[in-house]
Amino acid sequence: MPYDPERTSCWTGIIPESFRKRHNAFRSVNPTHSIAAIGSRAKEIIEAAKKSADKGYKRVLELDGYALLIGTRLDVCSAMHLAESHVQLPRNILEKIQPPQEIIRKYGEDLGWPRWDKALGLTRTLLKLRSPAENLG
Questions:
Q1: What confidence tier does 42 reach under pLDDT thresholds 50, 70, 90?
Q2: Cβ–Cβ under 8 Å, residues 28 and 22
Q3: Helix (H), strand (E) at residue 131
Q4: Residue 25: what are its φ and ψ, rounded to 5°?
Q5: pLDDT-derived band of residue 116, with 50, 70 and 90 as boundaries?
Q6: What is the distance between the alpha carbons of residues 66 and 74, in angstroms, rounded to a whole number?
Q7: Which residues contact 31 (CB under 8 A, 6 or more apart)?
Q8: Which of 69, 86, 109, 126 lies 20 to 30 A from 116 at CA?
Q9: Cβ-contact 74, 56 below 8 angstroms
Q10: Contacts from 9-12 at CB under 8 Å and sequence distance 24+?
Q11: Model's pTM, two decimal places?
Q12: Could you report how far apart the first and last alpha carbons of the chain are, in Å?
């Protein structure tokens, strides 16, 4: 069955599925990384997500919105890709991030591999998290 934002179930669990099914929820058209939103700015978030899920997450961030994770970890939160694209990793980490040689041989050097060394650095929003994160270790 083809993807239908109104009828296709979420594969990520009962909580997102229940949220998506609420009468006032809107859901993006991306079949693999859909975003659901509720509220006065929900349509705006879903419109941004038409371009990509990251654009939807970016709009949530710009609106001081939240990603709610219940009973899960950050490593399965797709919104973390937005944070990854705004953080400049330390040089000692950058030196360890390399595409596997087999992939380079097969596809060449220019893979579109993330250029963390060219990232934007910490944004004002992420800087707000620095102190709480350091306090938590």
A1: very high
A2: no
A3: helix 124-136
A4: -90, 145
A5: very low
A6: 13
A7: 3, 8
A8: 69
A9: no
A10: 10/34, 10/36
A11: 0.59
A12: 46
47: closest CA among 24, 68, 69, 30?
30
Higher-confidence residue of 43 and 125: namely 43
- Is residue 76 left, alpha or beta, with left meaning phi > 0 and alpha meaning psi from -120 to 50? alpha
- The whole-angstrom separation of Cα 45 and Cα 55 is 8
CA distance 61 to 2: 30
Token representation of residue 8:
């296709």
Q: Are 6 and 27 in contact (CB under 8 A)?
A: yes
**DSSP string for residues in 30-83:** -SSS--EEESTTHHHHHHHHTT-HHHHHHHHHHTT-----SSS-GGG-TTHHHH
**73, 61 contact by CB (below 8 A):** no
Q: Cα separation of 27 and 5, whole Å?
A: 6
How far does Cα 31 stand from its chain's mean position?
15
Going by C-beta distance under 8 Å and a sequence separation of 6 or more, which residues neighbour residue 117?
A: 88, 89, 91, 94
In the numeric block, which tokens belong to residue 17? 């599925």
